[in-house]
C-alpha cells in the first residue's frame, strides 16, 4: 500500500468553521472509512484533551465519521495499531512532539501510515509530518529530546506561512529570513503553506490544494512559487 496523507496549514480560515474550508479534501481522504483516531496532544491554548477531542468529534460527525481520542484508551500504542485513520490537530508543536515520544507513538504511527493508513494533520499536526520540527513557528515551551518528527515526507513544512508586508515598519525577521537561517544548518527543502492551502500525498505524488500558491525553499537557492496546478513531485525525491 502507499501513503495517503492530507497536510493542512490551518484548521480554521477567516470566516469559516473548524475544518470547513477543507471539507471536500477531508471527505476524499476518508472515503470508505467510518472512524478516525484523534491525537489532541498539541493542546492549543491549553485546551484539555477531552474538550479538543469533542471539537474534532463535532466536525467529523457531519461527515458520518466517528472520532475517539487517543487519551481515551488505556494503551495508546494499541489504539494507533488498531485505528482506521489518524488525525493530529494543531497547537504547540513542541508539546505535541514531546507527548508523541513520551507515549511511544512515533514508530507505530510511522509504520501504520507508511503502510497506507490515512493520515491528516493541521498546523502542528502537519509540521510533525516532515523530517523535523525545525520550521515550526511555535515557542519551545517544553523541552524535546529531538527535533526528529514522523518523517512521513522527506521535506519540512512551515504552516501558516506569511509573506512580508511591504507597508510594514516592523524591523524583525520575516519567515523567509527564518527559513534561510534554517538552511544554514539543514539541507531538506521547506514548503511554506499559506492559510487555506494543503498538501495531498498519494503514493509517489504530491499535490498542492487550496486557493494559494506555496513557496518552496531549497538550500542555497532563491525561493520559488508553485501554483496548485504545478508539478511538485520532485519534493518527494528530496534528500
Automatic annotation (TrEMBL):
Q: Which domain of life is it from?
A: Bacteria
What are its GO biological-process terms?
Answer: proteolysis
Q: Name one GO cellular component term.
A: cytoplasm
Q: What is its main location?
A: cytoplasm
Annotated localization: Cytoplasm
List GO molecular-function terms, semicolon-separated. Answer: dipeptidase activity; serine-type peptidase activity
> Which positions make up the signal peptide?
none
Coiled-coil ranges (or none):
none
Q: Does the keyword Hydrolase apply?
A: yes
What's the protein name?
A: dipeptidase E
The UniProt entry, under InterPro entries, shows: Class_I_gatase-like (IPR029062), Peptidase_S51 (IPR005320)
Enzyme class of the recorded protein, top EC level: hydrolase
Similarity comment text for this entry: Belongs to the peptidase S51 family.
Query: Could you tell me the keywords of this UniProt record?
Result: Cytoplasm, Dipeptidase, Hydrolase, Protease, Serine protease
Record's Pfam families?
Answer: Peptidase_S51 (PF03575)
The record's catalysed reaction(s) read: Dipeptidase E catalyzes the hydrolysis of dipeptides Asp-|-Xaa. It does not act on peptides with N-terminal Glu, Asn or Gln, nor does it cleave isoaspartyl peptides
Amino acid at each position: 500500500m502507499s501513503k495517503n496523507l492530507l497536510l493542512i496549514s490551518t484548521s480554521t480560515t477567516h470566516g469559516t468553521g473548524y475544518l470547513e474550508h477543507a471539507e471536500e479534501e477531508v471527505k476524499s481522504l476518508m472515503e470508505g472509512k467510518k472512524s478516525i483516531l484523534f491525537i489532541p496532544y498539541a493542546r492549543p491554548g491549553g485546551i484539555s484533551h477531552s474538550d479538543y477531542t469533542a471539537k474534532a468529534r463535532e466536525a467529523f460527525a457531519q461527515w458520518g465519521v466517528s472520532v475517539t481520542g487517543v487519551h481515551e484508551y488505556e494503551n495508546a500504542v494499541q489504539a494507533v495499531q488498531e485505528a482506521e485513520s489518524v488525525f493530529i490537530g494543531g497547537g504547540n508543536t513542541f508539546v505535541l512532539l514531546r507527548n508523541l515520544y513520551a507515549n511511544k507513538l512515533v514508530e507505530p504511527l510511522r509504520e501504520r501510515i507508511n503502510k497506507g493508513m490515512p493520515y491528516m494533520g493541521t498546523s502542528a499536526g502537519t509540521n510533525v509530518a516532515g523530517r523535523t520540527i525545525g520550521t515550526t513557528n511555535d515557542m519551545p515551551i517544553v523541552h524535546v529530546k529531538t527535533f526528529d518528527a514522523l518523517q512521513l515526507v522527506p521535506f519540512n513544512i512551515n504552516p501558516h506561512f506569511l509573506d512580508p508586508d511591504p507597508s510594514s515598519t516592523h524591523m524583525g525577521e520575516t519567515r523567509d529570513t527564518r527559513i534561510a537561517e534554517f538552511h544554514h544548518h539543514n539541507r531538506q527543502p521547506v514548503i511554506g503553506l499559506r492559510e487555506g492551502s494543503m498538501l495531498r500525498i498519494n503514493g509517489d505524488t504530491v499535490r498542492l490544494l487550496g486557493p494559494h500558491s506555496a513557496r518552496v525553499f531549497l538550500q542555497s537557492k532563491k525561493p520559488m512559487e508553485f501554483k496548485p496546478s504545478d508539478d511538485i513531485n520532485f519534493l518527494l525525491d528530496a534528500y
